[in-house]
Design goal:
alpha/beta
């Protein structure tokens, strides 16, 4: 469909580590060097033959941090995004796109803390020039595992991430935009 130039390929560099806290990503706690491992993976991918560059940074994390004070989480996540910008350079500025939690999980347990953390994710990514947040509205979790998305939801969520990336990479929408429940539309003004 013309989105990818002739003879170009996309390499997705996985760096996620399930159940981790932003404090681990910032190197404040834990014995696994998550951030340096991510940088190693990105730099290895960029070092492969060809003209390789980073075109997006996707972030889907925060469930382990809902007990953290929301303002502290926002501060730490904003610092993390700044570190990413500093350490993962590219000839063209790339979007940073974050996603919200699985809605079924948000509605269980401490809903207010989960909603507050989602709001801080949106605020933190909005501090980035090319930041955007993707809604997860209407996406069910796995049966018996509502913190994770079902396979069908992951496909829809991938489309939402792509649509947000495409809009941000093209110079629109503002950082306060959120992709709504239908991947083909954008709503502005927050979540």
């Amino acid at each position: 469909d013309g989105k990818l130039g002739a003879n170009r390929q996309i390499l997705i560099v996985p760096a996620a580590y399930g159940g981790t806290s932003i404090r681990q990503w910032l190197g404040e706690v834990g014995d696994i060097p998550l951030y340096s491992d991510m940088l190693l993976r990105v730099n290895t991918a960029r070092g492969l033959p060809g003209s390789n560059r980073v075109v997006a940074f996707l972030w889907h994390q925060g469930e382990a941090d809902v007990d953290m004070a929301p303002s502290t989480y926002k501060q730490k996540l904003t610092a993390f995004f700044s570190n990413v910008r500093r350490d993962i350079m590219s000839p063209v500025m790339y979007p940073i796109v974050a996603g919200k939690f699985a809605p079924g999980w948000v509605q269980t347990g401490n809903t207010s803390a989960k909603v507050a953390t989602e709001e801080k994710i949106a605020e933190a990514v909005a501090t980035d020039t090319l930041g955007g947040i993707v809604s997860t509205a209407g996406l069910p979790g796995n049966a018996g595992d509502i913190i994770h998305f079902s396979a069908a939801s992951q496909i829809t969520l991938g489309s939402r991430y792509f649509n947000m990336w495409e809009r941000l990479a093209a110079g629109g929408p503002s950082p306060s935009c959120t992709l709504s429940a239908t991947p083909s539309s954008i709503t502005t003004g927050g979540s």
